[in-house]
Amino acid sequence: MSAARFDKSGLDERLIACGLDPEDVYVDIQDYLDEDLSHARRDLTSESIFDPNHSSIVAVTARSDGLLAGLPVAHAVFHAMPGPTEFTYLAKEGARIRAGQVLARVSGRTRDLLAAERTALNLLCRMCGVATHTRRFADVLADWPTTVLDTRKTTPGMRALEKYAVRTGGGGNKRMGLYDVAMIKDNHKEAAGSITEAFRAVRSAEPEIDIQVEVETLDEAVEAVAVGATFLLCDNMSPKELGEVVDAVGDRAELEATGRITLDTAVEYAASGVDFISVGALTHSSPILDIGLDFEE
Length: 297
Fold this sequence. Notes:
Layout: H1 11-17, H2 22-37, H3 44-49, E1 55-62, E2 66-67, H4 71-79, E3 85-89, E4 96-97, E5 102-109, H5 110-140, E6 147-149, H6 159-168, E7 182-184, H7 186-192, H8 195-205, E8 211-215, H9 218-227, E9 231-235, H10 239-249, E10 254-258, H11 266-270, E11 276-278, H12 281-284, E12 291-296
Subunit structure: Hexamer formed by 3 homodimers.
Domain Quinolinate phosphoribosyl transferase N-terminal: 43-128
EC number: 2.4.2.19
């Protein structure tokens, strides 16, 4: 089914407000639906039970406490169905939600609602889970001038959605991919011979792009700043070692700490004076938030 089916009647604006490209979302949703229904869009069970014109109203309901992220994406899934659906928002994007709370109601042909159910819930549960996990880090860091960042450790095909969920939870996005920011890491340093040589090679090839440098020691941090780096990723350093880097670098570079940082240790790392901590687990290990769909009378 072509993405051109969407007129969107307010849906575009909701997705744009989330920082998402509507057309990208619509195209991705076609792929997600094909995965569950095949290109033929068949739900063998529902087609056997319900007449094509049978209609229903369903409630999208939180079954756990958490943070809401992705309701417009769920809306887009229902809107992708061949028959008309009406999606009523009953909760605000980014709000804290409670178990038992009805987040939305959807009406339409029963076959369409059940065909869209699993894809819509998979996306919504995943995005709410990422946002909820991120919010826990943001809350822990609330008294510190330190922001939690995500990484590129995202689910293939869901990077934009997961990174939106991180933003909704109060975190920041490190970079979208390999194309928008240069990041000199250990393999680059080894291949080029040093941080200095790697930095100069990237700067020569890309005079205007932001360059970040991964460092593992105080000496590497000093070398990176000396060659012109203004953002350092401090990998697997202890809070004490990070404090030494902060003292040596001062305000000449923004500093990010990474490497097995948890909710229990986040404040200890923030207290070292770094500007950011990055947590790959925000996107690769966040548990979903349990959300269900039930028929209403």
